[in-house]
Amino acid sequence: MAEEGNIISTLNLDTPMMPAVNGEDTSPAIGLISQYIKDLSVENPNAPESFQWVEAAEIQVEFNIGARPLGSDLHEIEMKITATSKAPQGVIFAVELSYGALIGMRNVTDEQAHPFLFAEGPRLVFPFARRVIADAVRDAGFQSLMLEPIDFTGIYFAQLEQKAAEDAAAAEAESRAQDA
Hints:
Elements: E1 29-43, E2 58-69, E3 74-87, E4 90-106, H1 110-139, H2 152-179
Antiparallel strand pairs: 1-4, 2-3, 3-4
């Protein structure tokens, strides 16, 4: 009988020894940690006259996605959205939003990280950025601007194809220049 506090174990020598696992999780993991407004600008430069303009306004929306590492397992996605409404008389409103998200990544290859940072991550946070834009336009005194959903994955892969085509054309031009 063993005394209290002692551990009795048996080892079966007929079973091959398995290497010890150190408990480290080596599975790939990606998660959204936080999202936030980095910068928000709302301009209503022609108020109150712009509220009386009856001509149809043209709305132009531009967006840009950026990402940067903040550490070995932490990245930031930054989505910049600019929405401008113009009438023949001038600018009705302009909203500029810089919306950030912190993304945690562990055991993820660059081939997996890049599409997440530039397609899937923006897809996840876009509805929240869209809401900020809608509220800002409403708070400026206009009807809320509901931006249409954006196919970030489609845009991502189209840009990859375009870059590959440009690289191939540049390589071909360089090859012809060397042959000449």
